[in-house]
Write a structure and sequence with these properties.
2 domains, 10% strand, Heat Shock Protein 90, alpha+beta, 5 strands, five-stranded mixed sheet, 402 residues
Length: 402
């Protein structure tokens, strides 16, 4: 499986150098050794033999062992031990091969990060300095001096290897964190795009629902009133009054339809607050019906936010339209109550009533949706033969006075 976070460029470069250092130092040592003008008898064949042995060991470990085996601790240890043996043999034969011993410091990096790194560096240092000591004339002070050098060298080089590995580990974690962050940012961007799409679709749906409610509350109710007046005109000789009312309703319905498309508030609320608008609504409604409508406003009147006033006005329109169309009532009442924290709208009639006050006709559904949109609620009570009561409750969110 591919490593999702491979070694950095620096680490790959160092590992590449560490692989080639043994060959470079072995070749350099051989060239310098062969270039020495005065050599003992048989030295050159022995040099070539030992160099060939060292090269065979290097190539054998690299080519004969499978890649998955070469990375194991046992294989690394055996390969490193064989390298030190060939270093010891070559430096004992010709001290110039001390150059080749440097490769041990590089290959010690294969043990990092562990205590074996220090052991590999220490072993390389011992092999390196033992060839530099004239054991026939060495004293305790000289041996102690070289041991001190071995110790310092081991700590410095071994610590450097481990520090390098630790730094690389931190860099890998950093690269992984950056990669995770980038993935999270891309995911967030995708989610943001999805949210925008959903918001756009939700906005379209909300606008369709708004238009449906407005059409129902304006055009449908206006057309119902027009039909009522025209039917009344058919039954009397003097039809002028009913035709005039029908024309007025048609004009008002057209005006309200245009305002609905433009998402404007009802014209009754343009220059007046809710109580005055309700009075105008009730007067106009009473003119088109034969129902006696009583309007009452209680409590301390305060200007409400436009959204609240429009919602209550539309609910009153719809409730009165239902009375005219379905109730067959002779009396109705509209009460607007300011109680401080909430505003109540109650519309009741003495009509036929119905058995399922929780019905879901579009008019009732429209009223509930409107009220939910401003944090309000709707309750309906109805008894067959005794009439219906519609009660709307909204929070008294205040607006600016006109």
């Amino acid at each position: 499986m591919n490593d999702p976070f491979p070694p950095s460029t620096w680490e790959r470069r160092f590992l590449g150098i560490a692989e080639t250092v043994p060959y470079i130092t072995l070749a350099a040592s051989l060239v310098i050794s062969l270039a020495t003008p005065v050599q003992p008898p048989g030295a050159i064949p022995r040099t070539l033999l030992l160099t060939g042995l060292a090269l065979a060991w290097l190539l054998g470990a690299r080519t004969l062992l499978p890649a998955e085996v070469r990375g194991r601790r046992v294989a690394i240890t055996v390969h490193f031990a064989g390298l030190l043996v060939t270093v010891a043999l070559l430096t004992a034969h010709d001290p110039i091969f001390i150059i080749y011993s440097i490769s041990g410091f590089f290959l010690a990096a294969n043990f990092a990060p562990s205590k074996w790194t220090f052991a590999a560096v220490a072993a390389t240092s011992v092999v390196l300095y033992q060839s530099a000591i004239d054991w026939a004339h060495a004293d305790l002070q000289l041996i102690a001096f070289h041991l001190a050098i071995v110790a310092v060298q081991t700590v410095a080089i071994g610590g450097g290897h481990i520090a390098g590995v630790k730094i690389e580990e931190r860099q890998r974690k950093y690269r992984k964190a950056v990669s995770d962050l980038q993935a999270a940012l891309e995911e967030n961007a995708d989610l943001h795009a999805q949210l925008l799409t959903q918001a756009h679709q939700a906005g379209i749906l909300d606008e369709r629902q708004r238009m449906a409610r407005e059409i129902h509350d304006t055009l449908a109710q206006g057309l119902t009133g027009i039909i009522t007046q025209l039917r009344a005109a058919q039954r009397v000789e003097d039809a002028g009054t009913h035709v005039g009312l029908a024309l007025d309703l048609a004009q008002d319905s057209l005006t309200e339809a245009r305002r609905s498309v433009a998402a404007l508030q009802p014209h009754q609320l343009e220059d007046a607050h809710l109580p005055e608008a309700m009075t105008v609504l009730a007067r106009n409604w009473a003119q088109t019906t034969s129902v006696d409508l009583h309007v009452e406003v209680t409590g301390d009147r305060v200007p409400l936010s436009p959204a609240i006033e429009v919602t209550l006005f539309r609910v009153a329109q719809e409730a009165l339209a239902n009375v005219a169309k379905h109730a067959d009532a002779t009396r109705a009442g509209l009460t607007l109550s300011y109680t401080g924290a909430v505003v109540l709208l109650d519309i009741r009639d003495n009509g036929t009533g119905f058995r399922e006050p929780g019905g879901q006709g579009f008019g009732l559904s429209s009223m509930r949706q409107r009220l939910r949109g401003v944090g309000g609620s709707l309750e309906i009570e109805s008894t067959p033969g005794e009439g219906t009561a519609v009660s709307a409750t909204v929070p008294a969110l205040q607006g600016s006075p006109r």
